[in-house]
Design brief:
single chain, Tcp11, T-complex 11
Length: 430
């Protein structure tokens, strides 16, 4: 970092020295235009580089207005009109710049000092160059993406031609997803502790009754990958390249399930006044996230005991600070007990929150992330920001995978979905 700082200072000093030198040359009698000519040559090159291929008339105009041979002759006779040239350059920049640079160019029109003006022109042209680079990258992105998709698909087809069994695990994966959609999810037993906190919504209960379609089967298949047993080696062949990323998303999903469960249980003991404070909720989230990191290096029971004690202490302290009634010793013991058990899969809060995050991710695949955030199931609103990030990563990964392997998936899905239903969805919708 120190080296970078030093390098930056050296560059800045050198840069300043150039402008100081230019000023001395222009103030000399007679003026020396050698530096100014070099600068004008570079400005001309930048302006030409900003032109689109069809802008031939403007190209000719710039070539004529900044004809370096002519400018050199004028300089030799001491007749180089720098202010006039600067004004022409500014008017050309106004035509070429992105709207975001309009204000910067307009400000330069009020600068009268020739050196300050040329320096400002050079700085704004640097920004315009970056704008053009970014625009080019954005415009090429779809073509690059399409090329990448075609290459990956062709490579896989080559392998498939040599090894016809290459889609066996993928077929099993999609078959299991279709079966899952035909089987209702297990209901969570009503327990006194859990029913007061959360219960499945009607939309979740009805989720399993949707008719089979290629899009729904694929969505279910992708969701199943986030629960994949690491010991199960029958991972879909089409997703082997994405396995590490999916495992990372699975870890994030587990952390979010625990975080949302902790917050939900904590809110049921704290009351609406305390949980109506965004500062308190943010603080509790920070504490829980930091302590959850210990789950990676410590036994789970030990780490969750620390989480439960710390959260309980924070609630107790915040209730006191707000002049509210503190938790009774029985309630404190119940809170700590519930939080300690939150990571167990049979825990009802953990189970239902997990189902709801999966439902959210499924909606992301079908409807998109922003639409899915509009109607978050109960218990998830406190982790909206984290869910949006997880959903975006998951959608991006699955979208690229579907673009590459969509045709292979459709061939398999034709054998799994009744013809009448399969006809409703074309390959393009994948």
């Amino acid at each position: 970092k120190a080296a970078n700082g030093l390098e930056g200072r050296v560059k800045e000093t050198t840069h300043n020295a150039f402008w100081d030198h230019l000023e001395k040359q222009l103030l000399a009698i007679p003026p020396d235009f050698s530096c100014a000519l070099e600068l004008l040559r570079e400005i001309k090159e930048i302006l030409l580089s900003l032109l689109l291929p069809r802008q031939n008339r403007l190209r000719s105009e710039i070539e004529e207005a900044l004809d370096m041979n002519l400018l050199k002759q004028e300089a030799e006779h001491g007749a180089l009109n720098v202010p006039h040239l600067s004004k022409y350059i500014l008017s050309t920049m106004t035509l070429l710049c992105a709207p975001v640079r309009d204000e910067a160019v307009q400000k330069l029109e009020n600068v009268t000092d020739p050196v300050r003006l040329l320096r400002g022109i050079f700085q704004v042209l640097g920004l315009m160059k970056m704008d053009m680079v970014n625009y080019t990258i954005r415009s090429l992105q779809p073509q690059l993406q399409e090329h990448s998709v075609q290459c990956e698909r062709a490579k896989f087809q080559e392998l498939l031609n040599k090894q016809p069994s290459l889609l066996d695990h993928t077929t099993k994966w999609l078959t299991r997803a279709a079966a899952d959609l035909s089987t209702p999810p297990p209901s969570c037993p009503d327990t006194p502790d859990s029913s007061s906190v959360v219960c499945p919504s009607p939309s979740e209960a009805a989720n399993s009754l949707e008719p089979l379609s290629p899009k729904m089967v694929l969505s279910q298949g992708f969701l199943n990958l986030l629960l994949w047993d690491p010991e199960d080696e029958e991972f879909p062949e089409t997703l082997l390249m994405d396995r590490a990323q999916l495992q990372e998303l699975e870890a994030q999903l587990r952390q979010l399930t625990i975080l949302a469960s902790v917050l939900l249980v904590a809110s049921s003991f704290s009351g609406s006044v305390l949980f109506g404070s965004p500062q308190f909720v943010d603080k509790l989230k920070r504490i829980t996230k930091a302590l959850m990191e210990e789950l990676k290096s410590r036994p789970e029971e030990e780490a969750m005991l620390t989480v439960s004690e710390q959260v309980s202490q924070e609630i107790h302290q915040s209730l006191q600070n707000m002049g509210l009634a503190a938790l009774s010793s029985d309630n404190t013991a119940s809170l700590i007990g519930e939080l300690q058990n939150i990571t167990k899969k049979e825990n009802c809060v953990h189970s239902v929150i997990g189902q709801r995050i999966h439902l959210f991710l499924k909606c992301c695949l079908v409807l998109g992330v922003q639409r899915s955030l509009l109607d978050l199931p109960g218990g998830l609103t406190l982790i909206e920001v984290e869910l949006a990030e997880l959903g975006q990563k998951f959608v991006s990964l699955t979208h690229h995978n579907q673009q590459v392997f969509g045709p292979f998936y459709m061939e398999i899905l034709k054998t799994l979905i009744p013809p009448a239903q399969a006809l409703e969805t074309e390959v393009g919708s994948l």
